[in-house]
Hints:
Oligomer: single chain
Distance between the termini: 63 Å
Largest sheet: 5 strands, antiparallel
CATH architecture of the domain at 3-73 and 137-187: Orthogonal Bundle
Strand content: 5-15%
Number of strands: 7
Shape: globular
Helix content: 40-55%
Amino acid sequence: MTATRRTLAALLPAALAASPLLARRAEANAQPFDRWLAELRTEARGKGISAETLSRALSGIAPIPRIIELDRRQPEGTLTWAQYRDRVVAEPRIGNGRKAYAENRTLLSAVETRFGVSSRAITAIWGIETNYGATTGSYPVVQALATLAYDGRRSSFFRGELLNSLRILDQGHIAHPRMLGSWAGAMGQPQFMPSSFLSYAVDFDGDGRRDIWDSRADALGSIGNYLQRAGSWKPAEPWGFEARLPPGFAIASADGRTMRPLSSWASAGVRRADGAPLPRGEMPAAIAAPDGADGQAFVLFANAQSVRRYNNSTYYVLAVGLLSDLVGG
């Protein structure tokens, strides 16, 4: 038995004992983790990932019981939009966002010029994802993804992300000890999954590496590139604004996704929040009223849908829009 296999053999029983969930999963899998990992190593070598990278990244790892617990945890309740808004679009995130926006204005302007994406929207996403780079996660990404891939509940997805994380290491963008992220494998200041990194991360500072962990330029540039390429951001167009729905409005159509000409919503009686008419024109827009007819309502344009590609949640889309307005003054 190699030293690596001895290490895994020693670590896995303790991990299983610490987590009944992990023990049940391993029993159902009927395959020891070290054997599963050996098969993954073979697959990775077949995909061109170097033996050196695999040895450095996979040696001595074992499942992390805490990650299984987090993955299994069911939410105790669902936040309303108003509750979510008051937690996310609030101090100190607003004040810190204004400071971050001012301090990085030159960089943000360069990113906006290159990708045509609002620097305020980039700042808002940066703030919501990691508090402007302050909270990027402390889990080792390879080990976290290996835990979730072995667990089996979403093994195919996480196995693919694990292989992608190994590709990133093999390409030399980040040293293995610095590849840290969330318990689910989201990485760096933009919280990209490895597949998103490979598709959208950019080397904005020109040092030859796409470093979304320690290079602010690469992190913000990557957010801009993501919104431009994945979301087809439209320069100079707004994300949306707060609106007022008329009595009897068909609330089922206020799903935040159904795009109709602005004139169509105006004809249905939708107005600005202050009661003023909607702008004239045929620009496609959606209506979002996540708390129903008695809560806040919003008109959302195409750029809001670009943000949805970053995180497919109407709450998230609205929070990014509102925070972007606030951080930019």
